[in-house]
Design goal:
Elements: E1 9-15, H1 19-24, E2 33-36, E3 39-43, E4 52-58, E5 66-67, E6 70-73, E7 92-101, H2 105-114, E8 119-126, E9 131-138, E10 143-149, E11 159-167, H3 170-177, E12 185-186, E13 193-197, E14 208-211
Parallel strand pairs: 1-3, 4-6, 7-10, 11-14
Antiparallel strand pairs: 1-4, 2-3, 5-6, 7-11, 8-9, 9-10, 12-13, 13-14
Length: 218
Amino acid sequence: MGDVLQPPVLDELVVGDDPDSWAAAGFHVDGGVTWLGTVRVRLAGPDGGRGIRSWGLSPLPAGTDDVDGLPTHVPDDAGAAPSRTLTHPNGITAFDHLVVASPDLGRTVERLVSLGLDLRRTRDVGSPERPRQQHFFWIGEPILELVGPTTPTGDGPSRFFGVACTVADLEATAAHLGEGCGRVKDAVQPGRRIATLRHEAFDISVPIALMSAHVDPT
């Protein structure tokens, strides 16, 4: 029998934004780094490209630098999460999920499973005219939400889309951000609420959703 792969976890994101932009949006930034829960976000500046430039996963097979088109690296100090939960001035307490889009869900799922990740759930979304699916994987603290068309639309790479974060008090976060936060509304998840950080107003290149805490179904 072959060895059982240890599922990789998300330790780090490298983002092509100026640290001051994230600080202006209420994130605690120190030395060009901020933390979303257990995930370090390195704010590397825009010169090398905007958006999420790479994700740091561990463990990974030696030499892995790409996962279905997603630039990938193994952090030098993987697992070096802060010793306590950091609450940002904007109220964010945790990394809820990372959204990745793919033109070919079957191909991307196959690649993720080959790394040891377990497909936990599939959900139909979209419309009859534009059917889409979401596939969910645990990648440590956050969930990986993979979204795309039910029928492949091409052979292009997967791409990072955005992140969703949990906040302690969504109404308080919305008040703190003022015009920098969209309308608070019900989320798809029962009992949760959601709003959108108006990231472009802060010159942040990553779409960021803000969500109330998970609700115990019992």
